[in-house]
Amino acid sequence: MTLEEIKKKLPKSLEITKTCYEGSEIVFYTKNRSFFVEGAPEIKELVTEFRKRVNIRPDPSIVVEPEEAKKLILELVPEEANIKDVLFEPEFGKVIILAQKPGLVIGKVGETLREIKRKTYWSPEIQRVPLFVSNIVNRAREIVHEEAKYRKSFLNKIGEKIQLKKGSKEGWVRISLLGGFREVGRSCILLQTKESKVLLDCGLYSESPIETHPYVDAPEFDIDALDAIIISHAHLDHSGFAPYLYEYGFKGPMYCTPPTRDLTTMLTLDFIDVVQREGKKSPYTSSGVKSAIKHSVTLDFNEVCDITPDMRLTFQNAGHILGSALSHIHIGEGLHNLLYTSDLKFGPSKLLEPAFTNFSRIETLMIESTYGGAHDIIPPKRDADANLIDMINKTIKTGGKVVIPAFSVGRAQEAMMVLAEAHQQGLLNVPVYLDGMIWNATAIHTTYPEYLSRYLQRQIFHMNNNPFNSEIFHRVSGMTERKNVIDEKEPSVILTTSGMITGGPIMEYLRHLAGDKKNTLIFIGYQAEGTLGSRIQKGWRDVPFPGGNGSQKLLKIEANIATVEGFSGHSDRNQLINYISKIRARPERIIIGHGEPSKSMNLASTLHKLQRVETIVPRNLDAIRLR
Ligand SMILES: [Zn+2]
Ligand SMILES: [Zn+2]
User: Fold this and answer.
1) Alpha helices in 478-544 (DSSP H)
2) Do residues 333 and 236 both lie within one domain?
3) Measured in angstroms, how far is the CA atom of residue 83 from the centroid of ligand 1?
4) Which of 29, 214, 338, 529 has most Cβ atoms within 10 angstroms of its Cβ?
């Protein structure tokens, strides 16, 4: 059925002036004010019939002037909501309300929101502003807002392409593995059917000098024929090469969750910066990043979305980092169901809920194996937390400082939550300095509390105790402040990037603090082979260290070196096995990637024995027919 036919089916009294597709949604623009505010039963029927989301928007002729509408909104919403800005997107009939407390803009059972519609005839959308200033969150949102006109026609075009066509029960499905198999890094999978070509992740190696990008030169990869990119989460080994495709002309949608869009923006811009500072050439510039944001389509968990005529995507929580998603793809009408887990955590953490398991159908499961090896057993998280606090306190007692290298996204915030809780329980009483991108990443966490664990949501929403806001945290920005932290006589904890000591502010801290026996360096994250972090962790006492103007000096390590296991955002071997047994659906085939070859293979043979299913450990450039 075409849009025109649908429009004809609806009563004239609804005064529909325009019907169009915006992405996978059908949108009606109307002059009928009460239809706009209250909706109509005919629309509900449409939703059931086509399993499409339907949006009703105001015709431009009925909206209240923006100045007046803004005034009305500020009157209707209680002051405590702390509205920071009100923006209008006439292209979509939308008013965007940026507030610190969105709940108060919505009101009890949505009453305030309905009042806003009733009084202004604009479609309200609320965005939470971060607890502290973050240019990065603003940047991604600004681009989306500035590009409203472009996005309107872009979304229309995607919609036209997807159409209302029902997928077929026949056909074939295959995947080509372009990166991230028998290795960790540059995850990239091309998923193809007769009708569609979609990329699952598009990452790079950011910590290693070898082949840095996925095999986009494989013959089956054609940028012009690509329909869409799905980004599972913001880590560069999954997102870091996407801007390259946009810089070189890709104009299709990039599907991800809202936090992934913001975190990816932050990490890719930082990547360009780091590469350039090292005097190397970045594979893309900030215009590639900007273009990726411009083409992003964000989906929340559990939101079902048609992304091509025969593929329906649903994201669910992967428990790995903020916004990280499991991608469930339903192909054709029941032709095939693929679950691509990407990185996942099926275990307790303060920050996030464990990965979602309630899938009703999966034929092919693609899963990671970072810690899938026979000996990859991580101690319980509770012990890890206690261990960390113990080690810190031992150092504090002797008057030393603790330096913790951490990835800006994920481990840093998990550690912060443990430190904030210890502080609240009276177990830790020294300042915790946050340096590098950690502050910005944390600001993004405060923008999306809905994506955090239930434990944290309870603290934030019901107990008015936001641990991100704890008084022990202090931001360090710039050389002078960094020097003050280093020179300070009192003990402290310094949480800083980069996680594997490959660059960033950690270098400055080590240069000055590593030579003192009183201090301790604590590793809480994965150290890839060949990185400075891995060498120091292994016990090297004299390490080659960048000495400025490209020269290398030997740095003598006198500080204590410690590792706290159990902080990983990845599942260990048991958690991976347990996860697969807890998924409601029973996959017919398990494809294993994102791990060193021996680990992937070991996990495969164990799963084969336990689950009695086909397990495959493919190599990059292999292609597998799924159906
Ligand atoms: Zn990851
Ligand atoms: Zn990864």
Assistant:
1) 479-487, 506-513, 532-537
2) yes
3) 34
4) 214
> How many angstroms separate the alpha carbon of residue 569 from the centre of ligand 2?
10
Give distance in angstroms: CA of 350 to centre of ligand 1: 17
pTM > 0.85: yes or no: yes
CA–centroid distance, 581 to ligand 1, in Å, is: 22
Encode pLDDT of 285-333 as tens digits.
999 999 999 999 999 999 999 999 999 999 999 999 999 999 999 999 8
Q: How far apart are CA 583 and CA 316, in angstroms?
A: 13
Ligand 2 center–CA 277 separation, angstroms: 24
Distance CA 455, CA 303 (A): 23
CATH of the domain at 39: 3.30.300.230
Pick the closest to residue 189 from 71, 92, 306, 329 (CA basis): 329
For residue 127, pLDDT over 60 is answered with: yes
In a domain, 461, yes or no: yes
C-alpha closest to that of 232 among 335, 358, 341: 341
By residue range, what is the domain housing residue 559? 386-563
Q: Are residues 392 and 422 in the same domain?
A: yes
Taking the centre of ligand 1 as the mean of its atom positions, its distance from the CA of residue 233, in whole angstroms, is: 7
Two tokens, residue 620: 């990059």
Ligand 1 geometric centre to CA of 223 (Å) = 25
Residue 346 domain-assigned (yes or no): yes
How many other CB atoms are found less than 10 A from the CB of residue 185?
Answer: 24
pLDDT on residue 133: 78
Q: Is 374 helix (H, G, I), strand (E, B) or coil?
A: coil
- Both 300 and 447 in one domain: the answer is no
- Measured in Å, residue 321 CA sits from the centre of ligand 1 at 7
Do 418 and 324 share a structural domain?
no
Q: Which residues surround ligand 2, an ion (CB under 5 A)?
A: 237, 343
Give the pLDDT of residue 485: 97
Exposure letters 393-404 (e unless 16+ CB within 10 A, then b)? bebbeeebbbbb
165, pLDDT greater than 70: no
Residues 249-287 pLDDT 10s: 999 999 999 999 999 999 999 999 888 888 888 999 999
The predicted structure's pLDDT at residue 199: 98
Which ligand has the nearest atom to the CA of 206? 2
306 Cα: distance to centroid of ligand 2 (angstroms): 26
Tell me if 349 is assigned to some domain: yes
Tell me how far the alpha carbon of residue 320 lies from the centroid of ligand 1, in angstroms. 7
Q: Is residue 163 part of a domain?
A: no
Sign of CA dihedral 11, 14, 19, 25: negative
CB-CB neighbours of 489 under 10 Å: 5
pLDDT at site 311: 95
